[in-house]
Amino acid sequence: MRARVGLTAGVLAGLCLGATGMAVASTQDTATGVITACVREDGMVRIPQGALPESTAPQSVATIRPTATPTSEGGCGAREQEITWNQSGPVGPAGPQGDTGAQGSQGDRGAPGLSEVQTVMGPEVSIAPGRGDHALAACPSDKIAIGGRYTLLEEKLDLYSDAEVRIWNAGNDTSNRYWSLSVRNVSDEVVRVRAWATCAKVGQ
After folding, report:
1. Given this model, what pLDDT does residue 2 score?
2. How far apart are CA 120 and CA 116, in angstroms?
3. Taking the chain (204 residues) in consecutive chunks of 10 residues, what is each chunk's mean pLDDT?
């Protein structure tokens, strides 16, 4: 009597059969990934009876002779040798470290940095109603003006004035040594204007 058993397609492709063309069968423990088969003395390889999980559908079928003396548990018989292997091999050792890569090209030169930043106060300028004038603050000779501001005070008190004025040409001069502004007083009271320059060394 011949028995028909399910064969996994992966095992059929993976096991070397040799020149005799023997049939191959095996089962895999889905929990551990271990594949088990029985090898007879004549080289026939078969799946143990009842070892294939019920939930595993056969991929192909082969006809083989059952073992002459099967075990009561459905495993390999007395004249068979059980063989096992893993579906996935063990992780191999880490490879050697690769060679050091070539040095990259030098980057572009960065913009000059600022150092020794300071604020310089300019002289106070009083402007009568209806008149205009200029206020400026000069940086030290080894620094340039990188910005500035102004304050507008009342005539006699050091309080910020809310007098109406017109401001134009506020900014650095062409040499970047000064920060200045032009002011026209359009109010009916005297105002005092003071310029402040922000100065720094560049690229040092």
Report:
1. 39
2. 12
3. 38 39 49 75 75 43 41 68 75 89 87 88 94 94 93 85 89 90 93 94 78
- Dihedral sign for Cα atoms in the order 14, 18, 24, 30: negative
Q: Contact, 100 vs 59, CB < 8 A? A: no
Q: Which residue has the tokens 């292997």?
A: 85
- Provide, for the chain, the percentages of residues in helix, strand and coil under a 3-state DSSP scheme, each rounded to the nearest 5: 5, 45, 55
Q: Which helix (H) or strand (E) holds 200?
A: strand 191-202
Residue 17 makes CB contacts below 8 A (sequence gap 6+) with 24
| Domain ranges, ordered by start, for the chain | 3-86, 114-202
For the domain spanning 114-202, the CATH number is 2.60.40
> Hunting for tokens 């999980």 — which residue is that?
53
Per-residue DSSP letters for 24-80? ---EE-TTT-EEEEEEETTS-EEPPTT-S-TT---SEEEEEPPPSS--TTSS--TTE
d(CA 35, CA 84): 5
